Amino acid sequence: MSAAPLLRLIDDGPRAPAANMAIDEALLRRPGPAVLRLYGWRPHAVSLGYFQPLAAFADLPPGTEIVRRSTGGGAIWHADELTFALTADAALLPRELDASYALVHDALALALADVGVPVVRVPDGASCGARPTSPWCFEHPGRHDLVDGSRRKLVGSAQRRIRGPARVLHHGSIVLHRPARTPFVAAVADHVDADAAAPALRTAVAARLARAVGAVAACDALTAAELAAAAGLAAARFSAASFLAAR
Questions:
Q1: What does DSSP assign to residue 226?
Q2: What is the number of structural domains in the chain?
Q3: Is the Cα dihedral 151, 47, 174, 145 positive or negative?
Q4: Using CA atoms, how far apart are residues 243 and 158, in angstroms rounded to an integer?
Q5: How confident is the model at residue 57, as a pLDDT?
Q6: What distance in Å separates the CA atoms of residue 186 and residue 149, rounded to the nearest whole number?
Q7: The pLDDT of residue 178
Q8: Which of 5, 98, 114, 153 is the most exposed, having the fewest neighbouring CB atoms within 10 Å of its CB?
Q9: How far apart are the first and last CA of the chain?
Q10: Which domain holds residue 13?
Q11: What is the pLDDT of residue 143?
Q12: What is the pLDDT of residue 123?
C-alpha cells in the first residue's frame, strides 16, 4: 500500500496584495508536494479577475489597493476573510472541472459546519465562468458556490491549470465579516462569533481539504526559494501597472 501524499500546510498570515498573488503563482509553477496556504490581506484590497477591465472599477474609493489575479472570475473585496490557496499536481484533483470544484467546496462546507456555519453548495444554475457578467464575484452565486439559507454567497473561488508540469491552483475567499462595500455577501459572522471561530475554522479547512484529496497535512513554511520566486513575480507581474491595466 502506497503512502498518502503530503499536503504542506502554510498558515501564512496577512501579506500585501501583489505578494499574495505572486506566492500563489510561484507555488503553482514550482513542482513538489501539494500546498495549502491560508492567508489574509494587508492592506485590504480588491482583486480583479484576469479578464476584467480596470476601467470598470473607476468608482472605487481613492487609495484602494487593486491587484489582478491570474485566475478568472469577478472582483473580490478582500477584507476580513480567510483566503485559501491549494496548489498541487493536477492528478491530485479530478480532471473534470465541475468535479474538482465540487470536491473542494464540499470539503469547505464541512469545515464551515464544523464551526457552526451552515452552507450548501449550489448544485445547479450557470457557472460564473472566467468572464462573469457581474463585476463582483460574490454578487450572484453560480454553480458550486457555497451559499447560506438566503442564497447569499459566503465562499467563492477560482481555478487555474497549467501544463509542463501539469499543475493546478484553486484559491478563494471565505468571508468572516461582511465588507461594507459588498453588502450582498454572506459571512461567518452572520452565524457565530467570527473572530473566536477563526482559529478553529483554519484547522477545519486544513483537515477537511487534506481528507478530500487523500493527503496527510503537515505544518510547513515557505522556503527561501519560493519567496525569491514570488518576489520576482510580484515585481515583474503583479505589482506592474501594465499588468493591472492590461484589460
A1: H
A2: 1
A3: positive
A4: 19
A5: 96
A6: 10
A7: 97
A8: 98
A9: 50
A10: 6-244
A11: 87
A12: 82
Reduced to 3 states (helix: H, G, I; strand: E, B; else coil), residue 103 is helix
Cα–Cα dist 159/86, whole Å:
9
SS3 of 65, please? strand
Rg of the chain over Cα atoms, rounded to whole angstroms, equals 17
**What pLDDT, on the 0 to 100 scale, is given for residue 124?**
63
Q: Are 169 and 159 in contact (CB under 8 A)?
A: yes
Q: Evaluate whether residue 75 is within a structural domain.
A: yes
CA 171 to chain centre: 3
**Are the C-beta atoms of 125 and 142 separated by less than 8 Å?**
yes
**Which residues are annotated as catalytic?**
137
- The grid coordinates of residue 216 equal 496527510
Q: Is the peptide bond before 43 cis (omega within 30 degrees of 0)?
A: yes
pLDDT of residue 126: 47
Q: Could you tell me if residue 190 is inside a domain?
A: yes
1 is a domain residue = no
Angle at 60 (CA atoms; ends 55, 62), nearest 5 degrees? 110
Q: List residues bridging with 77 in a β-sheet.
A: 46
Q: Using CA atoms, how far apart are residues 212 and 52, in angstroms rounded to an integer?
A: 32
pLDDT averaged over consecutive 10-residue blocks of the chain (247 residues)? 88 97 97 97 97 95 96 96 98 95 97 98 64 81 93 96 95 97 96 98 98 97 98 98 95
Name the region of 165 (left: φ>0; alpha: ψ -120 to 50; beta: rest): beta
Decide if 218 is inside a domain.
Answer: yes
pLDDT at 145: 94
- Residues constituting the chain: 247
pTM for the complete prediction?
0.94
Instruction: Give 14-28 pLDDT, tens digit per residue.
Output: 999 999 999 999 999
- CATH at 124: 3.30.930.10
Per-residue cell: 172:
478563494
